[in-house]
Amino acid sequence: MSSKRVGVCKGASSYITHVDWDARGKLLQVNTGAREQLFFEAPRGKRQTIRTTDVEKMDWASWTCVLGGTCSGIWPPSSDVTDVNAAHLTQDKKLLATGDDFGFVKLFNYPVKGKLAKFKKYVGHSAHVTNVRWTHDDSKLVSVGGADTAIMVWRHGGTGTNGEAQGESEESDSEVEEDGGYDSDVQRERQLDYKAKTYANPIREMSGIKPHQQQITDAPERPAVSRSYKSRPTVHRIEPSEGRRRKTAIVELILDHIHGYRGFDTRNNLHYLSDTEIVYHAAAAGIVHNLTNSTQTFYLEHTDDILCLAVNRHPKLQNIIASGQLGKDGPIHVWNAASKQTLSIVRGHHTDGVCSVHFSCNGKLLVSVGIDADHTVVVSKWSDGTKLASSRGHSERIFVAEFRPDSDSQFVTCGVKHVKFWTLAGSQLVGKRGLLKANGQDVGDDAAKMQTMLSVAFGAGLRLQAV
Predict the structure, then answer these.
(1) Could you tell me which residues come within 8 angstroms of residue 260 by beta carbon, excluding any fewer than 6 positions away?
(2) No. of helices (H) and no. of strands (E), the chain
(3) How many angstroms separate the first and last alpha carbons of the chain?
(4) What's the pLDDT score for residue 252?
(5) What is the strand order of the sheet 105-109 is part of?
(6) Cα dist from 240 to 120, 235, 245, whole Å
(7) What letters, b where the CB count within 10 A reaches 16 and e where it falls short, cover 345-365?
(8) Confidence band (pLDDT; 50, 70, 90) for 438?
(9) 127-166 burial: b if 16+ Cβ within 10 Å, else e
(10) Contacts of 128 (CB under 8 A, 6+ apart)
(11) Which residues neighbour 461 within 8 Å (Cβ) at sequence distance 6 or greater?
(12) Distance between CA atoms of 388 and 379, rounded to whole angstroms?
């Protein structure tokens, strides 16, 4: 097979974003960063001019382009050319799937002409959706997230156990070596800036229009989009004319499987629910995985990356999960792992997000740690979101907060070069710094040099083990 170049396609005024062949292999369709839709004859690369009506009639081997008259309706109001990252058309040329900068997977009836076309959107990704592709038989759609590092598989049509997934639906120096060192991933995590790492514009905070563009217009103030808030999409404003051009209803997608697990900057976030089920998280999805038949069900009410997860171990509160996310107000969702119903959303106690949560002995209280500069520690009653007490946690990053197994008022936090013991006293949190003691050393002696503590466990006699 020869790799000799046979032609060059010239004429694009910006970078190439998408390329498609026609079914005969004689024509190339190209999209560019300057919002151009160009056509080139193969193999010479001579530029061609083709009318929109003719483009629609042509037989294309694939359609992944996002520009042109046949897909003009996929673009949200006031969007720029980078907002819709990928598209893919089914083999029967009836459904166009897209992935965008707002973390949505969308389905449109094809062709998607005009502005504000009707669609169905699906949530699960917490970052930009970088690509979408149908399988060879159009039975499944695969979507790939960017910063959330998750691959999601969506089943096309039908009903199943996963029906709830339907849409619309601080320092680094030589001191590290002196301390004996700790894992390079921990050192990286110690310096991790969640705000810089994620997104300058919060995912899905506004519907259709990026925040920096919203400030330019004098649009009326609207509540932030939330999956639990049934806002009315802009697209519904064209309802009066829908009767003249009604189309077949868009077939549903059902989230079937998520390939991914957030472990690079989180810990203690995978738990057994029973002998056959585990719960963990990836992107903005809480995942309940059945080990017997390898099926998954999902909790999809979060609006950004989930950073922590805890299971309620009280026998009368089985299958109750708490999961904290990144973002403004630091919402903690308390939900049922069996039904996927939201029981409570505890919000407003943390400013930037939550990195650790844990249930008390009686299962009624939650301790949570924020990712703000003070790593604020909060104890709250999760059933109604009432804050009982809060305190500045530590200047260094806190990795774990955990109640004593027999207590509703005593818990421990640990992290970079510290361990701290806490007591809930009325509306106050009283903290006491932990000291390390070598074998045979008296309490009055100089304490051993504190190491970074990554996790905690309570052994026999409720003695704390921190490692």
Answers:
(1) 145, 148, 149, 150, 151, 282, 283
(2) 5, 30
(3) 58
(4) 83
(5) 84-89, 95-100, 105-109, 120-122
(6) 19, 11, 10
(7) bbbebbebbbbbbbbbbebeb
(8) low
(9) bbbbbbbbeeebebbbbbbbbbbbbbbbbbeeeeebeebb
(10) 85, 99, 100, 101, 102, 103, 145, 146, 147, 203
(11) none
(12) 6
pLDDT tier at 441 (50, 70, 90 boundaries)?
low
The amino acid present at 169, given as its one-letter code, is: S
User: Residue 50 CB: number of other CB atoms within 10 A?
Assistant: 14
What lies within 8 Å, CB to CB, of 130 at 6+ separation is 85, 86, 99, 144, 145, 146
Q: How crowded is residue 251: how many other Cβ atoms within 10 Å of its Cβ?
A: 14
Query: Which one-letter amino acid corresponds to residue 196?
Result: A
Give 348-399 pLDDT, tens digit per residue: 999 999 999 999 999 999 999 999 999 999 999 999 999 999 999 999 999 9
**CA 32, CA 14: separation in Å to the nearest integer?**
6
Cβ contact 389:428 at 8 Å: yes
pLDDT tens string 118-146: 899 999 998 899 999 999 999 999 999 99
| Residue 267 confidence (pLDDT) | 87
Stated pTM of the model = 0.77
Write down the residue that tokens 């504190």 correspond to: 450
The C-alpha angle 237, 238, 244, rounded to 5 degrees, equals: 155
pLDDT of residue 1: 67
Q: What share of the chain is helix, strand, coil (3-state, %, to 5)?
A: 10, 35, 55
- Closest C-alpha to 146, from 194, 74, 209, 199: 199
Computed over its alpha carbons, how large is the radius of gyration of the chain? 26
Classified as helix, coil or strand, 424 is: strand
Whole-angstrom Cα distance, residue 272 to residue 270? 7
User: Is 128:147 a contact under the CB 8 Å cutoff?
Assistant: yes
Token pair listed for 112: 């998607």
State how far the Cα of 214 lies from the Cα of 372, in Å rounded to an integer: 27
Residue 97 sits at φ, ψ, to 5 deg, of: -100, 140
